[in-house]
Amino acid sequence: MFKVKFADIGEGLTEGKVAEVLVKLGQTVKAGDPLFFVETDKVNSEIPAPVAGKIANILIKPDQDIVVGEVVMEIDDGSSTVETPPVVKTEEPAEENASVVGATPVSNKLITRGLPKQAAPVQTKSASADCAPALTDCDTQIPARGTHSTNRTTSQPFKAPNPEKHFDIIVVGAGVGGYVAAIKAANLGLKTLIIEKGAYGGVCLNIGCIPTKTLLKSGKVFEQTTQKAAAFGIEISKDAKITVNWTKVMERKEDIIKKLSSGVLYLMNKNKIKHLEGEALALDNHTIKVNGETYTADDLIIATGSTPRGLNLPGFEQAQKAGFLLNSTDALSLPKLPKKVVIIGGGVIGVEFASMFASYGSQVTLLQGLPTILEMLDGDLSKEMTKILSAKNNITIVTNAMIKGIEKNKVVYEVDGKEVKLEADYCLQSVGRQAVTTGFDNIGLQKTANGYIEMANDYCQTNIDNVYAIGDVNGKLMLAHVASHEGVIAVNHIATKKGVKHAGHTKMEFECVPSCIYASPEIASIGKTEEQCQKENIDYKAFKFPFSAIGKALADGDTHGFVKLIIENKYQTVIGAHIIGNRATEMISEIAVAMESEATIAEIAHAIHPHPTMSEAIGEAAEALLTGKTLNL
């Protein structure tokens, strides 16, 4: 009988809390299989089994505090009673891993989030070494921490009928999630096939992120030239005619899309990834049919993205056929610049398009069914953006608006019990997106109530263990950078199952994902909002530093907005940041790194922020939270 003791967790800590027990009595485990998940003030880790055997006794339970040296489990390994060998600390670069049971040489210079990385080969495996097999070797294995409990289907060993048409991985969808996953797989030496039915780069490069930002930039240049040139000392003669050449604007957008999309195809060829154009149909969880040919793979990655949702209201179908009612894809290729636009929906996409059309001089009415626009954001951001947009003479924001329907070129809505009919050139409906699962609806994938493919764990596995879902199709966070990151995580997990030496061991952590809105001004946000802190009874502190006190903002002629930082009071780590203003989307990365590394507000305050930059506002807000006083306000 092997008595498993909780080892020295290092970093000056001697105790932890059991977050989740990952095994059951009588369960057979291998050395390295995760036993339980422990949380400490400095590091969170899955603790692996130091020996193989059967779980004979479990002496811990969730939320239990444990200390170093405490016996937590007993494993029947067929031998006489032994205990986990003690951990001896040294000052050498390779020391006993303080965050796992047993002796695993690792570098003491870096603590990783999630699973500890394996260092030199040793007899006792690290937690990361067998993490992936632990998920597949036993049907009753509890899903990874922080995920849904799903009935998982364990894939049986697959024998390819035609080795020449068999791949380690087939990726369906060549958007930013799919093509990044394919490249990562190729880099790890995995034979990879990617299938795309449309344009390489998917929604983001072709009808999403890139074209919208291109149109936003052209509009901003026009707006600055016509409205702000005089303030910068640039005089335009009275007879000068400054106009928008909409055809040229569209041509610039198409040139950028073409360049990026062809760049993706170049990367496929450069990395020797087989790619096919056509619509994929899954015959089972190993077999894909495309263009009349069948291909097989050990693992599948679904990266099929999403399409815009639509409302089913009176007159909407007819208005769409007539070209009056648009979705976000249609709005990117209008034949002419509209004079009047109605936008239904005050979320991210609605606000970006409102800002874009207004910058070209269009009259914009934004109809929002809720009391505020951007309701998912920190309240201070929503209020500030509403104030800034409403101050423009060509944007009208109507909240609590109930859409009734469309009559020819008029949008009918009700507010405060009064019906209004608003005429416009176009109406854009921006009411969310829905997953594209066509071709995969017959293999038994579990879905959420909203039709997204459900993630079974933080490695983007579905309920079928050799099928992964990344990007918009899983509905977790519909952001391009999330899709790319999920693609890397999924491929690393597949490579780990195959025993690839250089595969990474990371999980998807949605708590530290930055979100960006490319309106004017920009918005960037990460972590908890102040409203969430209050709802969750978190002991926190927040501070806002205005850009009006920043020299670079004054020089740029754009002093709108602020930086808002939120910290928890016990350890003073950053748990949220919310920025509105010029270059907010570039500044948020500093906070993302700080949160990922669990930096304290003191470390941010003590970091030297270059002058003059907009990022000085981050340092100023950090200084205020650290000392209670500002330096330049």
Quick overview of this protein structure:
With 633 residues, the protein is an alpha/beta fold. It contains 14 helices and 33 strands. It has 4 domains: 2-76, RNA polymerase II/Efflux pump adaptor protein, barrel-sandwich hybrid domain (OB fold (Dihydrolipoamide Acetyltransferase, E2P)); 163-231 and 243-307 and 434-498, FAD/NAD(P)-binding domain (3-Layer(bba) Sandwich), CATH 3.50.50; 311-430, FAD/NAD(P)-binding domain, CATH 3.50.50.60; 521-627, Enolase-like, domain 1 (2-Layer Sandwich).
Task: Give keywords.
five-stranded mixed sheet, 4 domains, seven-stranded mixed sheet, 633 residues, 14 helices, OB fold (Dihydrolipoamide Acetyltransferase, E2P), alpha/beta, FAD/NAD(P)-binding domain, 25% strand, 25% helix, single chain
Distance between the termini: 66 Å
What's the β-strand tally?
Answer: 33
Proportion in β-strands = 15-25%
How much helicity do the residues have?
A: 25-40%
CATH architecture grouping of the largest domain: 3-Layer(bba) Sandwich
**Runs with pLDDT <50, length 5+?**
8-12, 82-150
- Average residue-wise pLDDT: 86
Rg over CA atoms, rounded to whole Å, is 27 Å
Continuous helix count = 14
**Structural class label:** alpha/beta
User: How many structural domains in the coordinates?
Assistant: 4
Question: What does this protein look like?
Answer:
It is a single chain. This protein is α/β, with parallel strands linked by helices and 633 residues long. It has four domains: 2-76, OB fold (Dihydrolipoamide Acetyltransferase, E2P) (Beta Barrel); 163-231 and 243-307 and 434-498, FAD/NAD(P)-binding domain; 311-430, FAD/NAD(P)-binding domain (3-Layer(bba) Sandwich); 521-627, Enolase-like, domain 1. The strands form eight sheets. Strands 12, 13, 14, 15, 16, 17 and 28 form a seven-stranded mixed sheet that branches. Helix 2 packs parallel to helix 9 (480-497). The longest helix is centred in the middle third of the chain and has 25 residues, at 246-270. Residues 8-12 and 82-150 have low confidence and may be disordered.
